[in-house]
Amino acid sequence: MNFPEPDKSRLERRKDLIERLRKDLNADQIIDSSEDLVAYECDALSAYRQRPMLVTLPDNTAQVSAVLKACSALDIPIVPWGAGTGLSGGALPREDGVVLSTARLRSVLDIDLKNRTVTVQPGVTNLAVTEAVEQYGFYYAPDPSSQIACSIGGNIAENSGGVHCLKYGTTTNNVLGLEVVLADGEVVRVGGKGMDQAGYDLLGLLTGSEGLLAITTEATLRILPKPEVARAMMAVFNSVEGAGQAVADIIAAGMVPAGMEIMDQLSIEAVEGFVGAGYPLGVAALLLVELDGPESEVAHHIGVLEGLLRQAGASEIRRAESEADRLRLWAGRKAAFPAMGRISPDYYCMDGTIPRGRLPEVLRRIGELSKGYGLRVANVFHAGDGNLHPLILYDSNVEGDLAKAEGLGADILKLCVEVGGVLSGEHGIGIEKRDLMPCMFNDADLDAQERIKACFDVGQILNPGKVYPVLRRCAEGGAMHVHGGEEKFPELERF
Amino acid sequence: MEESNRVADSIQEQVRQALAEDAALEVFAGGSKSFLGRKQSGRPLDVSALRGVVSYEPGELVLVARPGTRLSEIETLLDGEGQYFAFEPPGWGEAATIGGTVACNLSGPRRFKMGALRDHLLGIEMIDGHGERIRAGGKVVKNVTGYDLSKALAGSFGTLGVLTEVCLKVWPRPETQATLSVHGLLPGAALQHMLDWAARPLEITGLAYDEAGLVARVEGPAQAVRAQIETLRALVAAESSVMQEDESRAFWRHWRELEWLVPGAGMQRWRFSGPPTRMVRLMEALKAEGLQRWGLDWAGGLLWALLPVDTAVGLVHRTAARHEALGWRFAVGERNEEAFTPPNGGVVRMNQMLKRSLDPQNIFNPGKMFALDEIQVGGSGLDG
Ligand SMILES: Cc1cc2nc3c(=O)[nH]c(=O)nc-3n(C[C@H](O)[C@H](O)[C@H](O)COP(=O)(O)OP(=O)(O)OC[C@H]3O[C@@H](n4cnc5c(N)ncnc54)[C@H](O)[C@@H]3O)c2cc1C
Ligand SMILES: Cc1cc2nc3c(=O)[nH]c(=O)nc-3n(C[C@H](O)[C@H](O)[C@H](O)COP(=O)(O)OP(=O)(O)OC[C@H]3O[C@@H](n4cnc5c(N)ncnc54)[C@H](O)[C@@H]3O)c2cc1C
Predict the structure, then answer these.
(1) ipTM
(2) Pocket of ligand 2 (CB under 6 A)
């Protein structure tokens, strides 16, 4: 990936910008020394690095608005930054841009148990939402593996999921209201505590928009009663395809488990060495299934499930007998990414979704691609919803290995699209998959998306250069029309 | 396939023609929901010929259909595979199409538990206001690939473009269901039960109340349904009875289709959605506007009501807004007042940004959702 040359004139405006920001922010809310800026060089896609010209740490919505106004006025790009755990380079800074970090926006603002909502600032971690309400018997359903660190603002920008999202949905299905700041600094409240929004579904449009349309400063989230029981089961298969077939059988039987995860041999071995989850070694595939709900329902389904797994050819089935057992089974799966560090100097995590029925074919072809490129690939999947996470193992110290890993990754994602899937299930497009977008969308599709960006962010200052390969402005995309001498939206500014 | 492409081409042609002539279009399918939204005067654009299920793979939990397909036809198809739409859309007439259902984001009693239609919409194909046929979203259940335009189209009432294909998530239908009805509760007490029960880890997929009493539907395997109904029954002192499978299904169908809320002469239906804790107080406040029959749905988050046709519409919207609720009026009035409670000024502005990007000439159902031109940026008709 090559980065564009920084805009020199913007670099020259750095001093003006600091001066302007100092009107609204304290000195300790502006990071400008190069040794402190290193911490913001990259998100979790660490192969790509760039140092921002400045980092701002606003304390409240008014300050977020002030930063946006200052940057708008001086034409300086802004990259929103949550916890920097993103895996697609969405928060990758620009040398000629400012990072707006939500690190100081970490308050839980409102817990409304009757309406079953929690309102938080964007820097609150995903897990902290559950922690705020678990004493009352509630939890927040989306549970990305990074949940101890990742922020709600980042989750909303990436529409993050987790191992439970087949049954409970991803972030977009769990957000009821937002306060956002638009590129020009206007603060807008969208939605609320009810189940409908007035006007268009802006919550749906903003969630998953990767920081390109607005900056989230507050979120009202739906919380759920904690299931009465959760039971997990692990089944061993002598092929990944066999495990995939078992998943299909479970769904065909009318069950929607809370989670279904498959790991292949390489992943199992890496994880077992890393956390000691008690997984058997030397087996081709593991399927973890979790059922949750009322005791009476789970008791029924768990028997059915065991029968289905046997029929599907599981060579070993293990029920988690205690809560500690259950958590240990999941600890392995949730540590799958970091565990790769044990078996390879570097790994590159992919994130495509495919129609589940195409799993055997896709796996076979990933195997062929892996051989062709000479790089190992470990596979973990959110099997219930067809979301694959092939982990490409490489060594950045070996000349050319990174480029090979990128090539292999791109080929895997193209394969996902070819079989009817998508480029990203939950990690977003960011900078990483930006140039693959035309593989999935044609010009007209991308034009429509970029026009939305251009209408929301006239000056193109919000996270520009991410997600879309080419940037255009609304005025170029579609000329304004005058209707019988009248303008259609007289109150909108012209550009 | 070829036939449907021909129909889509012809619709695209009509859109391009309208763009060239700068003429407005009124998008309709079965016309079953033409009572929603504001009056239209555009050139009719009938999309009902764009019909048929494109693909349905039960194992993938995904269905793709053209928008003119009858909702009833799709539901029969799903039923044959032991599946259903978890968002339980009302049809409000045999003519209901899947496109109209998506365009109105219609979701039934299961909404508070299973999500709205928008939560189950995976992808769309549409003709936008530039005359282009575009795609957004995908055909798999998990996806973050560009803006989720599908959601924006759900509930857009045909004002952002013409849908030519929709892809929806379908769900396994639970083995059975039963409904507990509790008789003789006052509204306040009923709401307390709703709030309490919705906060319990039970598979309650319907929680509604009207003058006949409080009803709670449980779905799942037979033994689990039985056990949960007993759990609920033990929580109420009032007299109660249980509707088993067929009776329960028939009841919720009747409820969802609003057969219990029939407007008599001079009355019309309204729908209010908001925070569950506010809805009984909203109902009390609407008595001043001549509230007649009413009922609560969505575990308290939705209020159905009959109000006089000659109610001061603006006042009703303001009352709704005071309770953080949104009103929908189920009739196009003589004076063509606001059909939906208008959003705040910032949201209006964002709505206009979206509208302008997809339909800059404002040809699709202009003014159907809001009297846009009458709302000033920076403050809606309601603020202040
Ligand atoms: C070990 C590991 C495991 C992971 N597991 C999962 C998983 O299971 N599921 C999953 O979905 N993801 C997973 N991720 C990816 C990542 O954690 C998520 O994408 C997460 O939502 C990013 O949150 P963040 O706060 O770190 O955001 P960042 O990385 O800081 O930012 C992500 C994007 O959001 C934007 N952004 C951040 N805050 C805001 C805001 N307030 N307003 C507007 N835009 C904003 C940024 O500009 C950027 O585009 C994993 C990552 C790691 C490292
Ligand atoms: C005044 C009136 C009152 C009625 N009241 C009731 C009642 O109270 N209860 C009841 O049960 N029935 C009622 N009906 C009957 C009911 O309207 C119809 O039987 C049926 O449900 C048609 O729905 P549809 O799918 O055809 O959508 P339509 O009604 O044709 O359209 C609904 C909305 O979706 C949009 N739309 C449709 N297709 C597309 C597409 N492909 N792309 C983009 N947008 C699209 C339209 O523009 C419109 O905004 C009423 C009918 C009328 C005319």
Answers:
(1) 0.95
(2) B 27-35, 37, 47, 67, 91-93, 95-97, 99-101, 103-104, 157-158, 162-163, 257-258, 269, 330, 365
